[in-house]
Amino acid sequence: AIDRIIAWEALDSRGTPTVACEVVLADGHRGQAVVPSGASTGAHEAVELRDGGRRYGGRGVRNAVNNVVTVLAEAVQGTDAADQAEVDRLLRETDGSADLARVGANAVLSVSIAAAIASAQAQGLPLYRAVAGAGAGEDVLLPMPMINVISGGAHAGRAIDIQDVLVVPIGATSFAEALELCWRVRAGTAEVAGERGLMSALVADEGGLGPALTSNRAALSLLVDGMLRAGVEPGVDASIAIDVAASQFFDGVHYHLAADERTLTADELVDELAGWSRDFPIVSLEDVLSEDDWSGWARATGVLGHVQLLGDDLFTTNPARLQRGVDSGTANAVLVKPNQIGTLTEAREVVRIAAAARYATVLSARSGETEDSWLADLAVGWRTGQIKVGSTMRSERTAKWNRLLRIEQELGGRARFATGEFG
Ligand code: PGA
Ligand code: ZN
User: Fold this and answer.
1) 235 burial class (0-12, 13-18, 19+ CB within 10 angstroms)?
2) Distance (Å, rounded) from C-alpha 205 to C-alpha 267?
3) Which helix (H) or strand (E) holds 2?
4) ipTM beyond 0.95?
5) If residue 4 lies in a helix (H) or strand (E), which one and from where to where?
6) Mean pLDDT, rounded, of the chain
7) Which of 323, 247, 328, 320 minimizes the C-alpha distance to 286?
8) Are 167 and 151 in contact, with CB atoms under 8 Å apart?
9) Mutate which of 334, 366, 388, 400 for ligand 1 pocket (most atoms within 8 A of beta carbon)
10) Measured in angstroms, how far is the CA atom of residue 286 from the centroid of ligand 2?
11) pTM for this one?
């Protein structure tokens, strides 16, 4: 049972304050978690509690930390940490609001995850086994990564409008091989960009390149050239995924592709993306339209649904929003970010709804991350099939990749890599 909780204000990978906590069980086992934070956050996400005022430019989290050690600790004290649903129900009940704005989703998530880690410790199980639950069986699925190579939008000073151009190593047969293949593509892309005088020394928020490109399409052709330079065959060994993050350049009426000097309607943006997917080996498109344009998304699903059409800001890891999507046939895949909803139980519920509706699931880090590696265990334990963590560098990214490498190594022949995600 949960005995006590310790919490403190820590920093994330952007140097922004975040909530860290440690759950201590009565038997002495402990679990520690530090929560991540987004930059291009969706309007329907659960709310991070920030202090305002002068400390850390108003971004401090002392009030959230205080909520952890007072009301949240009081609520879950004595609860069996292995009963995640009950822990999370008590946390949510203590806040009482739908978006967790009272005690803060950052406060709630820190306890939810630390309790899961403490419980795994107490059971003597690796976290991925503990979160899989009873009846999960021995067969373990390592996720197909999508790895950021070129960044734009809110993560890289808006050199291009689309936020993320990623490589998907569809030809890899193990996680270790997948990671090396992506590393080679990143190196090849950096080399080509350097020769063309496009390279800047800057590294984007998720470790991606932020080259000085003059159009959105130029990012896609640069990535294809990078693959060729690396000896990686486009469309066979590796394909492209894009996070359009369209809400970021939507003014309420139009979409502004500043790099292309064009202003588009929703229909025109969908047609533009259809053109990109004809000309480039694209297998996944994320947030192709703004987060509340359900009718636009319906048309987009008709036009672009032959590739993976991924809802991030659209669904915000919210079971009700995903259910609305499933019922209306909107998109065909969901990005899962635990801090968008605030508890592991609800994030898990999103994975369950998606699996039942045959929507693909991509577990995702945030642009502001931490040194924690629990995201890797969740991807394996929940069998999400895919994971998105950023680039192959920066310790907050490699903490997750390194954990997946360790799990694959530890399982040996019992590890299965999710090769079938893209046909
Ligand atoms: P964020 O970006 O963490 O800044 O929201 C990640 C994404 O949009 O997928
Ligand atoms: Zn996104």
Assistant:
1) middle
2) 30
3) strand 2-11
4) yes
5) strand 2-11
6) 96
7) 247
8) no
9) 366
10) 6
11) 0.97
In tens, the pLDDT along 379-409 reads: 999 999 999 999 999 999 999 999 999 999 9
Find tokens 């309790």 and name the residue: 115
Q: Is 327 annotated as a binding residue?
A: no
Nearest to 393 by CA among 417, 376, 369: 369
Residue 258 is given by DSSP the state G
The reply to whether ligand 1 has any atom less than 6 angstroms from the CB of 210 is: no
Is the Cβ atom of 241 under 6 angstroms away from ligand 1? Answer: no
Question: What distance in angstroms lies between residue 366's CA and the mean position of ligand 1's atoms?
Answer: 5
Structure tokens at 74: 């009081």
How far apart are the C-alpha atoms of 297 and 304, rounded to whole Å?
Answer: 10
DSSP 137-198: -S-EEEPEEEEEEEE-GGGTTTSSSSSEEEEE-TT-SSHHHHHHHHHHHHHHHHHHHHHTT-
Q: What is the 3-state secondary structure (H, E, C) of 220-253?
A: HHHHHHHHHHCCCCECCCEEEEEECCHHHHECCC
Ligand closest to 243 (CA) is: 2
For residue 354, how far is its CA from the centre of ligand 2 (angstroms)? 17
- CB-CB contact of 364 with 335 (8 Å): yes
Is 337 considered catalytic here? yes
Each residue's pLDDT tens digit, 130-173? 999 877 777 899 999 999 999 998 877 778 999 999 999 999 99
Residue 135 has what pLDDT?
Answer: 74
Residue 135's region, left for phi above 0, alpha for psi from -120 to 50, else beta, is left
Question: For ligand 1, what atom is nearest to the CA of residue 287?
Answer: 8
- Rounded CA-CA distance 41/277 in Å is 26
As a three-state string, the secondary structure of 189-215 is: HHHHHHHCCCCCCCECCCCCECCCCCC
Catalytic residue among 48, 337, 369, 396: 337
Residue 137 CA, distance from chain mean position: 26
